[in-house]
Amino acid sequence: MAKKDFKFLKTVYLGDLNIFKSAYFASYFIWQGMAREEFFKIVINNYNAFMKKRIKLITIEATMKFKGIAQLYDDIEITVQPKDVTFTTVDLNFTYLNKTTNKIIGEGTQRIGFTNFRDVIIPLPSELLKGGMDYLEDSWKKKAFQIYDKLNILKK
Prior knowledge:
- There is one protein chain.
- By secondary structure, the protein is α+β, with helices and mostly antiparallel strands.
- The protein has a single domain, classed as Thiol Ester Dehydrase, Chain A.
- It is built from four helices and six strands, in the order E-H-H-E-E-E-E-E-H-H.
- Strands 1, 2, 3, 4, 5 and 6 form a six-stranded antiparallel beta sheet that branches.
- It is elongated, with a radius of gyration of 17 Å.
């Protein structure tokens, strides 16, 4: 089965711009966070119940490679692709497509993990893994199943 693609659409507004009237570099990180949060909102079946567990998302590392510019009112399509699933982390890759120019203007990554309300590192939440499985490439699906099969998390 082919993986699903998750796409987040962001329009560039005045608050996203620098003095030179192009998107400020930090805006790309803000958009990355917005795309990530929307991805989790869609992937986690009952997001309200999940939030009541007081699980915290921790960004361990984030990168951004700039390849082009975005200007006022450009529509930016950010594709989120989960990769490199481990017991406690998942990497997300972000591709920024300027829909106005049809050019890739950036690529970014985030390594994320989770803690409980006491700030103790926990395994990836089963809700995230279950809901996100359709977005993984087959090689990462296999790895994710191997990791969580040991704990019987996916069978619950």
